[in-house]
Amino acid sequence: MNIAFIGLGNMGGKMAHNLLKAGLNVSGFDLSEIAIEHFAKAGGVVCESPQAAAKNADVVITMLPAAKHVKDVYLGENGVFEVLKAGSLCIDSSTIDPQTIKDLAAVAEAKGIKICDAPVSGGTIGAGAGTLTFMVGAAAQTFQDAQPILSHMGKNLVHCGEVGAGQIAKICNNMILGISMIAVAEGMALGAKLGIDTKALAGVINTSSGRCWSSEVCNPWPGISENAPAGRGYTDGFATGLMLKDMGLAIEAAAQVKQPILMGGLAEQMYQQRCLQGHAGLDFSSIIQQYLAPENNE
Length: 298
Ligand code: NAD
Description:
Elements: E1 2-6, H1 12-21, E2 25-29, H2 33-41, E3 45-46, H3 50-54, E4 59-62, H4 67-75, E5 89-92, H5 98-110, E6 114-117, E7 120-121, H6 123-129, E8 132-137, H7 140-150, E9 154-161, H8 165-194, H9 198-205, H10 213-216, H11 240-256, H12 262-276
Parallel strand pairs: 1-2, 1-4, 2-3, 4-5, 5-6, 8-9
Antiparallel strand pairs: 7-8
Helix pairs in contact: 1-6, 8-11, 8-12, 11-12
The chain binds nicotinamide-adenine-dinucleotide.
Residues 6-12, 29-32, 35, 50, 63-65, 69, 72-73, 94-95, 120-121, 123-124, 238, 242 line the site of nicotinamide-adenine-dinucleotide (NAD).
């Protein structure tokens, strides 16, 4: 089986590496020379365009920043749909809006190409360890076809429904995460200001009803959660800029169906402000800095 992997960045590079480790043939393309270098070192076949990578491929996997890149790779001038044979399978793991993948699926279907959205959670650590969760939107047979490939890169493969359902699951989950992180930051900052020991406070929250991933695994207060970005200056985590993108996707999707998302809207504005202040590259848990006096932020 020949696999084409397009988008070999922080996530895609590690995912492609896991496919290579499993002994699969992987041809790849990325606009970044550094990404290409790492891929070549891991044993991948470097190609000079998405089309060149996809030419003899049975499976195409894309892991790109946003919808415009995904559309460009599938439908653009050197787009892969032009060269893929009928019966081949496309897996888009980028986090994008549900409508874009549905539009791509309509084009693919007309060409006899199978396609699914398979966004992930688990971050760069999960991508490296091959333990990602894939939220898959696909016809039942396409999900079955994708499973053996996805299982080299992930541990939990969840069939969410038809094409687009994976992206719906992803953006709802990340909207909750973005809101819950702000709630935990607010609670931790209030507790500290009122004079409670922050470890004691976190201990109570994490055995009480305030407990969530943001309080337990990725607490924004430094020194609470082992290995959390808060303990290393909010580096090497899930960038605030990417969280802002995901909150924007939730707002866009909500607007399409006229569904109010009040907390989501407020949270999006808070991440927007952080990015404007120059913190787009810091982990999104650094939102707690909005609540602290300047001396705490040094
Ligand atoms: P990244 O920016 O590190 O990687 C994206 C790669 O795509 C880059 O190497 C870039 O050069 C390449 N690229 C852009 N346009 C291209 C094109 N036209 N052709 C070929 N390559 C192109 O981003 P990432 O962190 O790997 O994230 C990828 C996707 O996964 C995003 O949609 C993101 O929201 C999602 N995601 C990221 C994380 C995370 O923790 N980083 C977690 C879950 C989901």
